[in-house]
Amino acid sequence: MTFVIGENCIKCKYTDCVEVCPVDCFYEGPNFLVIHPDECIDCALCEPECPANAIFSEDEVPEDQQEFIELNAELAEVWPNITEKKDPLPDAAEWDGKKGKLEQLER
Ligand code: SF4
Ligand code: F3S
Questions:
Q1: How many Cβ atoms sit within 10 Å of the Cβ of residue 88?
Q2: 61: CB partners within 8 A, 6+ apart
Q3: DSSP element (H, E) containing 28
Q4: Across 31-60, average pLDDT
Q5: Residue 46 in contact with residue 72, Cβ under 8 Å?
Q6: Contact, 7 vs 53, CB < 8 A?
Q7: What is the pLDDT of residue 48?
Q8: Ligand 2 centroid to residue 39 C-alpha, Å
Q9: DSSP tag of 9
Q10: What predicted TM-score, i.e. pTM, was given to this entire model?
Q11: Which keywords, in A-to-Z order, does the entry hold (predicted)?
């Protein structure tokens, strides 16, 4: 089992999640973070830390975000590791909660 980052991280990227991960399994793209499914130890520490409520246990990913399971696995192989919190994206508050953000994903 792994945890998965879903759509609401896109264009927010608060990064509070990376600080609590005991195995440093977060990977960073331009406007989204992902979790490496083979490295996550299922500790659940990150889920409550996300101000955007964008992190789900794999078996609780909403029906309309199922594609993020594969997306996390795919992008974790190509993006660099991130282990320290940084400032959120400048318009994070404005984008928090918006629907249809997948088309805003930058790779
Ligand atoms: Fe890291 Fe634990 Fe979150 Fe997995 S569930 S990404 S191990 S903090
Ligand atoms: Fe994204 Fe939430 Fe982490 S917005 S960067 S999953 S704290």
A1: 18
A2: 4, 6, 68, 69
A3: strand 26-28
A4: 98
A5: no
A6: no
A7: 98
A8: 17
A9: G
A10: 0.98
A11: 3Fe-4S, 4Fe-4S, Electron transport, Iron, Iron-sulfur, Metal-binding, Repeat, Transport
Where does residue 70 rank: exposed (0-12), middle (13-18), buried (19+ CB within 10 A)?
Answer: exposed
Please report where in the chains the tokens 């990376």 appear, as a residue.
18
Measured in residues, the chain has a length of 107
Note the pLDDT tens digit of each residue in 62-72.
999 999 999 99
- Kindly list the protein residues whose Cβ atom lies closer than 6 A to any atom of ligand 1: 3, 20-21, 23, 25, 35, 40-46
Tokens of 64: 């309309």
pLDDT tens digits, one per residue of 74-104: 999 999 999 999 999 999 999 999 999 999 9
- If you compute the radius of gyration of the chain from its CA atoms, what whole number of angstroms results? 12
For the 3-88 domain, the top CATH level (class) is alpha beta
